[in-house]
């Protein structure tokens, strides 16, 4: 079973690369950002609470996203594997994911981290904000807050996988195809 954590700051290209990876490897794509936006679109109570935090560039509470991922793992018992995109975003989420997978006699194969400079992230997100309708992409102040949240709370997750010898970092600047090919080269070593 191939279980990949695609890691990187907001705008690093996780969602973009996930779309290509699910086609090539036949994996299930689990993006907590997409799942949360789905809740918002349906107007659920969870979605209403999450929207306030997301629009302000903050992380949603661990218990909420862990619960969503747990439900998706249960609903896809026959999957060949999963791409975790935007999850785990805290060390507590990473620990919970290990526990969820080990209860299913599975584990993370590896984490691939996309390295992109803050200037490039900001310009990508502002560009997407012009057409995506995402409030969290439209405002430079919110984008900077998301990058700060990443540095404070999410960056330590890399160390969690480094200590398990499951971490590989690649350059996230270049064409989508170049980055895809670098990711596939890493996956081929698993
Ligand atoms: P996400 O939906 O995960 O959003 P993201 O970090 O912006 O990444 P995304 O995958 O969408 O963008 P990508 O890099 O592909 O999270 C949104 C919010 O949800 C968070 O701020 C948080 O509030 C909440 N949340 C989600 N998960 C959570 C969790 N686990 N715990 C707590 N809270 C959580 O692409 C960005 C742009 O770059 C695109 O326009 C793309 O076209 C462009 N791009 C991609 N590759 C490129 C390349 N090689 N060159 C140039 N541009 C490129």
From TrEMBL:
Biological process GO terms, please?
A: AMP salvage
> What GO molecular function annotations does the UniProt record carry, in alphabetical order?
AMP kinase activity; ATP binding
Q: Name where it's found.
A: Cytoplasm
Q: EC number(s) per UniProt? A: 2.7.4.3
Q: Name one Pfam family in it.
A: ADK
Which CDD domains has this protein been placed in? Answer: ADK
GO cellular-component terms in the record? cytoplasm
Instruction: Name its pathway.
Output: Purine metabolism; AMP biosynthesis via salvage pathway; AMP from ADP: step 1/1
Instruction: Supply the enzyme class, top level.
Output: transferase
Residues the record lists as binding ATP: 11-16, 128, 174
Q: Where does AMP bind?
A: 32, 37, 58-60, 86-89, 93, 134, 146
Name of this protein: Adenylate kinase
| Record organism | Mucilaginibacter pedocola
From the broadest rank down, the organism's phylogenetic lineage runs: Bacteria, Pseudomonadati, Bacteroidota, Sphingobacteriia, Sphingobacteriales
């Amino acid at each position: 079973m191939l279980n990949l954590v695609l890691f990187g700051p907001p705008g690093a290209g996780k969602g973009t690369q996930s779309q290509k990876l699910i086609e090539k490897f036949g994996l299930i794509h689990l993006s907590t950002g997409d799942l949360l936006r789905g809740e918002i679109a349906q107007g659920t109570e969870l979605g209403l609470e999450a929207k306030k935090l997301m629009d302000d560039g903050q992380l949603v509470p661990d218990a909420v996203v862990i619960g969503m991922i747990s439900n998706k793992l249960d609903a896809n018992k026959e999957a060949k594997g999963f791409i975790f995109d935007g999850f785990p975003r805290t060390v507590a989420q990473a620990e919970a994911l290990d526990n969820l997978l080990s209860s299913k006699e599975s584990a993370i194969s590896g984490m691939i981290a996309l390295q992109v400079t803050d200037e490039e992230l900001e310009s990508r997100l502002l560009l997407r904000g012009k057409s995506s309708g995402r409030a969290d992409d439209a405002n430079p102040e919110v984008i900077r807050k998301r990058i700060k949240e990443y540095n404070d709370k999410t960056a330590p997750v890399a160390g969690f996988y480094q200590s398990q010898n499951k971490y590989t970092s690649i350059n996230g600047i270049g064409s989508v195809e170049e980055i895809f090919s670098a990711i596939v080269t890493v996956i081929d070593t698993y």
